[in-house]
Design a protein that fits this description.
The protein contains 13 helices and no strands. It is elongated. It starts with a helix and ends in a 33-residue tail after the last helix. By secondary structure, it is mainly α. α2 runs antiparallel to α3.
């Protein structure tokens, strides 16, 4: 059996069979970088992120210039909650391949998870410049602006994202929250009402019912005079659906 046969089995979704071939190659000391890398991809596909990290790091010991391995290592670390390690992997990738949208965007996500919103915003800015049509870059740029209390910019980011992807539930949720924080309750209520009418009974949009109720309550005078707004924010992952069928989808 050869590396090519393992790659074919992987593309066909026969992960166990591909894994057996790859482990045999490693025992023979053959294709150490490529075999470990593909084992890392298989581990990522099966949600075994610790194993994916181990295999991808092993692959990089044999081929430290593999851009693919650095990217998927960052993704596996991100998935397993190792945001600092993810940021290091994406940063290394950008040193080797500047102006790569996926790395800029996902480095922004890692930094945002680490509480470094200003640094994250700089990377989301570059991601938007590199791919203006990527709604997730605009959306996560908005999340970073929100963390930095740049609320006017936050709303602009969400509006840009909605123009590209008007039905994304996390985006609608974030935009509604930002509108409430700006005390634009009528606009938020209109957003939630339209969402419920367009997606009746869809669990992904269940938040809109609570949002609409909140806005209706805010429209009434408060007996205590206190004001409060919800403070949830979500981030979108870079979409994996753009990957070619012959390429390993993201971990």
């Amino acid at each position: 059996m050869s590396l090519q046969s393992a790659e074919l089995l992987f593309r066909q979704g026969q992960y166990s069979a591909a894994q057996k071939v790859l482990l045999q190659l490693l025992k023979k000391g053959q294709h150490m970088a490529a075999a470990n890398r593909l084992l890392g991809f298989i581990a990522g596909q099966t949600q075994d992120f610790p194993q994916a990290i181990e295999r991808l790091r092993a692959s990089l010991r044999y081929d430290p210039n593999s851009l693919e391995s650095w990217y998927y290592l960052g993704m596996a670390c991100q998935k397993s909650g190792q945001h600092r390690a993810a940021a290091e992997a994406f940063g290394t990738l950008l040193q080797r391949q500047p102006n790569l949208f996926e790395a800029e965007h996902d480095l922004g996500l890692a930094l945002l998870a680490l509480g470094k919103a200003a640094e994250a915003l700089a990377h989301f800015d570059r991601a938007v410049q590199l791919r203006p049509g990527a709604f997730e870059a605009h959306m996560n740029r908005g999340a970073a602006c929100g963390k930095l209390r740049l609320h006017a910019q936050e709303l602009q980011c969400y509006e840009s994202a909605l123009a590209l992807q008007p039905a994304h539930p996390t985006l609608i949720e974030n935009y509604g929250t930002a509108l409430c924080q700006a005390r634009r309750f009528a606009d938020a209520a209109q957003l939630y009402d339209r969402t419920l009418r367009e997606h009746p009974g869809d669990a992904d949009y269940a938040f809109a019912r609570g949002g609409l109720l909140y806005c209706s309550m805010r429209a009434r005078p408060s007996p205590t005079g206190r004001t409060s707004t919800p403070r949830w924010r979500c981030c979108a992952r870079t979409s994996a659906r753009s990957a070619n069928a012959s390429s390993p989808s993201r971990c």
